[in-house]
Design a protein that fits this description.
alpha+beta, Glutaredoxin, 4-stranded mixed beta sheet, 4 strands, elongated
């Protein structure tokens, strides 16, 4: 293998995988823009618009895989960032907050 091919493969292997899960809304858009501005040559950024979904539906399986319960959400190298982790809304939490109680 030539040195040039080796360097190319090495670069491809070392890319940081950044996945953004968004609803393409005014709350999500600034996060997407900020990540795109921060991203370097070592970052491969993929944005999943959950409203449109993706053709192969991989975005839906990744939601389950990463345990995403709110958006925008960001995963780096297959791990959901701590700032994006939250438990889902539940009936019990809504009741505890006083919803449905007079």
């Amino acid at each position: 293998m030539t040195k040039r091919i080796y360097e190319y493969l090495k670069t491809k292997e070392m890319k940081r995988q950044v996945e953004i899960f968004t609803a393409n809304c005014p709350v999500c858009d600034p996060v997407v823009q900020m990540i795109r501005e921060l991203a370097c040559n070592e970052c491969e950024v993929t944005t999943y618009d959950l409203v449109k979904q993706c053709d192969d539906k991989i975005c839906l399986s990744k939601i389950d895989e990463y345990g995403i319960h709110k958006i925008p959400a960001v995963a780096v190298d297959g791990k959901l960032l701590d700032c994006c982790i939250a438990s889902p809304i539940s009936k019990e939490k809504l009741i505890a907050a006083g919803i449905g109680q007079s």
